[in-house]
Specification:
The protein is α/β, with parallel strands linked by helices. It contains twelve helices and twelve strands. It has helices at 21-35, 90-97, 129-137, 177-191, 218-230, 245-254, 293-300, 313-316, 329-332, 335-345, 358-362, 366-382, and strands at 10-14, 41-45, 60-64, 79-83, 100-106, 123-126, 204-209, 235-240, 262-264, 280-282, 305-308, 323-326. The strands form two sheets. It has a six-stranded parallel β-sheet, with helices on both faces. Strand 10, helix 7 and strand 11 form a beta-alpha-beta unit. Helix 1 (21-35) crosses helix 12 (366-382) and helix 5 packs parallel to helix 6.
Length: 383
């Protein structure tokens, strides 16, 4: 339903060049604004391409070289500027002098991160209760009081309905000489190999559907879990996702005890086909994770989750109903995880169906998200 209060001048700002969870969030926040009748402009990096391939909901898109260009953009003041890539310092002061109010989504927890640049914002919007508690612990009292949970993003542009086949597991950082050279050589080598379609294997299938990035801490996780996995030959691991050279290398080393029971499939455009291939989705470690859109996606596809028993996973998983939480394997030597595996293998614990946990999934629905956006707009208008 369109908003009845007076509309504001509103801009979203996302200067990321690549496409990840923050960009997914930017798009569905923009579409919710449009559905509510609140027009907005989007500010993006000149080097970005993601916004060309996705429905952002924006009325107009401003292309800039960097945050230094934003104070000189042609948009009506006063306005609310909502950042997804937070800035800091004198530029924020200049915008505020022009009559702008400044908000920023906080897409990452403050664990082992600096927070001083957030002090210049009028409002901070945390994407989970875990992130919100971190803001308040640092004294950032301008935090919006409601966790701004995202929604599962399954309707992605690209090919669909095609067989799941193996792609490259690497994302190359061409600023590094090694990666630049490998980015030329590896695709040639990959093109000489026949396509490898996905085939199911007997046993219990665990899977990762994620970018292989440092915040997930997969190498540290599997250093703890690999002995338990290796001791249970009925368990297989399928990895759908890509990452930087070092992240892939370190994760492979940690998984070496499993041998050929680990298969890598690279990034997949149509993840709706991937989640039903898995008995359970495995998460990374919790403390650097803000929310985990892949967790929401999997549950919406009926795939339950296995995750350490800590925020933010305690917010996104209903234990026993949409998955199982186990003790942090770094603290108990993975005994809890091993016991959980045994109970799944012998059937003493049933496989949950997340789709039956409708009350749990409801707060991650598009309807609930749009209602959160409407409440946020009322707050911005009141200010």
């Amino acid at each position: 339903m369109p908003l009845t209060p007076t509309l504001m001048n509103l801009l979203q700002i996302n200067l990321q060049q690549g496409f990840g969870g923050g960009e997914v969030y930017t798009c569905f926040f923009g579409r919710a604004l449009r559905d509510l009748g609140q027009p907005f402009d989007l500010v993006v990096s000149r080097k970005a391409r993601w916004w060309r391939e996705h429905d952002t909901g924006a009325r107009h898109i401003h292309v800039v070289s960097g945050p230094q260009d934003i104070p000189d953009l042609d948009f009506p003041r006063p306005a609310w500027l909502i950042y997804h890539t937070p800035d800091g310092g004198e530029r924020l002061n200049r915008l505020q002098e022009q009559g702008c109010r400044l908000a920023s989504f906080v897409h990452m927890p403050l664990y082992q991160r600096k927070h001083e640049h957030f002090c210049g914002y009028d409002l901070l919007i945390a994407v989970s209760g875990y992130v919100l508690s971190g803001l308040l612990e640092r004294g950032l009292t301008q935090a919006y009081p409601e966790p701004f949970y995202g929604v599962a993003h399954l309707d992605r542009p690209g090919e669909s309905g095609l067989p799941v086949v193996a792609h490259s597991r690497f994302n190359w950082d061409t600023r590094k000489v090694r990666d630049r050279v490998l980015s030329w050589v590896h695709p040639l080598w990959q093109s000489c190999k026949p396509l490898r379609p996905y085939t199911a294997r007997p046993g219990l299938t665990l899977g990762i559907v994620s970018r292989i990035t440092p915040i997930k801490q997969f190498p540290v996780l599997f250093e703890s879990l690999a002995p338990a996995l290796a001791a249970r030959p009925q368990v297989n691991l399928e990895i759908f996702g890509s990452g930087g050279y070092a992240s892939i290398r370190d994760t492979r080393r940690a998984l070496a005890p499993l041998g050929n029971r680990v298969r890598w499939w690279g990034e997949q455009r149509d993840v709706r086909q991937v989640y039903p291939l898995l008995d359970y989705l495995l998460t990374g470690l919790p403390e650097k994770e803000a929310l985990g859109l892949n967790i929401l996606e999997a549950q919406m596809c009926g795939t339950p989750i296995l995750a350490p028993n800590a925020p933010p996973f305690t917010e996104t998983i209903a234990h026993g109903r949409s998955g199982y939480l186990y003790a942090d394997p770094r603290q108990d030597g993975a005994h809890g995880f091993a016991s959980l595996l045994d109970s799944l293998l012998d059937g003493s614990r049933p496989r949950p169906d997340p789709l039956r946990a409708s009350d749990h999934l409801a707060r991650f629905s598009e309807t609930a998200f749009r209602e959160r956006v409407a409440r946020l707009l009322a707050t911005l208008q009141a200010a």
